[in-house]
Specification:
The chain is 29% helix and 19% strand. It is α/β, with parallel strands linked by helices. The protein has two domains: 213 residues, Rossmann fold; 42 residues, no CATH class. Strands 1-2-4-3-5-6-7-8 form an eight-stranded mixed β-sheet, with helices on both faces. The chain is globular.
């Protein structure tokens, strides 16, 4: 069975889609991973998961989900769209996806990990767990509001030049928008009004389902403390901290990433 594309919502002229990748192994429990990409909410696309085939080969369905980007869409509305995406899955897992069960894991990388964390606070009874790679659950970290030394190494993208990129849809140029935002420390200004609903408090973390969390100890983009707090606060947590100074260590396949995903697959089978 090949991948299938579905529209789950229209936001004005913007069509929000998802891609369903069915499992490639026999499984008694047809569990689905709902996946959210990273990109600081300013760029990125849903089909960027390098290890998707390994997940499918080990009995997992994967549903990769679009969401609108900031600053054209405020973060509160981005979250609302993804809530609609989860609702679409829970409504149509039988008739559209031909599945027997609606059990799912939320999986997000970087900003997608934040989105998966926020949605986990909805306490879906069908959610078996949370998978978070180098993500976060609030914006209290100083590095999010100060110019980034790491991104400062790149050629500067002045704010006025960054503004010209906003209308570029989902093109690769939008990375420059994020680059500028981190260089000048004005990233949060792109996300709209920040409300208490956009933060996961420690008491909420204690109510999370089982979590699988990975972060590099010297991540230059997202502070590792965010994942350490998640691992410490959740009741059932598997936490892997990699001694490295990279952010998305799994952007391309490599021995270190291979090992992490093998451990993830073992964890998925345990909690499925």
């Amino acid at each position: 069975m090949k991948s299938q594309h579905f529209v789950y919502r229209r936001l004005g002229d913007l069509v929000l889609e998802m891609t369903f990748y069915p499992q490639q192994a026999e499984s008694t429990r047809e569990t689905t991973i709902l996946y959210f990409h990273g990109g600081g909410f300013l760029f990125g696309q849903r089909d960027d998961l390098t290890y998707i085939n390994q997940l499918m080969e080990n009995g997992m369905n994967v549903l990769t989900i679009d969401y609108p980007l900031a600053p054209e869409t405020a973060l509160t509305e981005i979250v609302s769209c993804l809530e609609d995406a989860v609702d679409w899955f829970l409504t149509h897992f039988e008739d559209e996806l031909q599945l027997r069960t609606s059990n799912f894991f939320l999986f997000g990388r970087s900003a997608g990990g934040y989105l998966a964390s926020i949605l986990t606070t909805n306490r879906y009874k069908e959610q078996l767990g949370l998978i978070r790679f180098y993500g976060y659950h609030d914006f209290k970290h100083a590095c999010f509001t100060l110019p980034s030394p790491f991104y400062g190494r790149y050629p500067k993208v002045p704010p006025m030049d960054a503004q010209k990129i906003i209308s570029k849809g989902n093109s690769e140029e939008r990375f420059l928008l994020y680059l500028s935002a981190r260089q000048y420390g004005n990233w949060l200004s792109y996300l709209g009004s920040m409300t208490e609903k956009l933060v996961v408090e420690e008491e909420q973390l204690k109510e999370f389902p089982p979590t699988f969390c990975v972060h590099c100890s010297q991540d230059p983009d997202v502070p590792v403390e965010a994942s350490r707090q998640l691992a410490k606060s959740t009741v059932s947590s598997t936490y892997i901290e990699i001694a490295a100074d990279v952010h998305d260590f799994d952007r391309e396949q490599n021995p270190q990433s291979d090992d992490v995903y093998e451990r993830l697959i073992t964890w998925l089978k345990k909690h499925n």
